[in-house]
Amino acid sequence: MISNEFNVFLAFVLIGIIISFIFDFFRILRCVYKTPDFVTILEDIAFWLISGIILLLGIFVLNDGNIRGYLFIGLFSGVCLYIVFISKNIINIGTKILNLFNKSVLIPICKVINFLIQMFYNMIKVFTKLFKKIKNDFFLVKKIKKVKDL
Length: 150
Prior knowledge:
3 helices; elongated; 150 residues; mainly alpha
């Protein structure tokens, strides 16, 4: 019985580490991408939903739905271990990876999209001028024909 409780305790230490990692994931996103308040609220809701689901699944799957004090001690221990030993490194590495991703993937894609939009805009301008000229020529031909008919 005690070995089972100890295994569940260790599992909840791991769940605390996983929830802390998810929290740092959202922190990294907020550091790299400046988001409006509405998006921040959505991210917070997503974090709490994900954390709640993980915690409830852990309670029901690992401990048959029994809530015991050692579950929360394990969860808190996992969070503390993560914050003290892992969090700074994860944030530094994650920020560098996202910044590298932005520089190597997103920025070139945005430049290509802007170029294509500019080309499309220029084509529309050319076609607009062409259609105006055709329209003017058409009405000029009609006027000339009308004058000849008189």
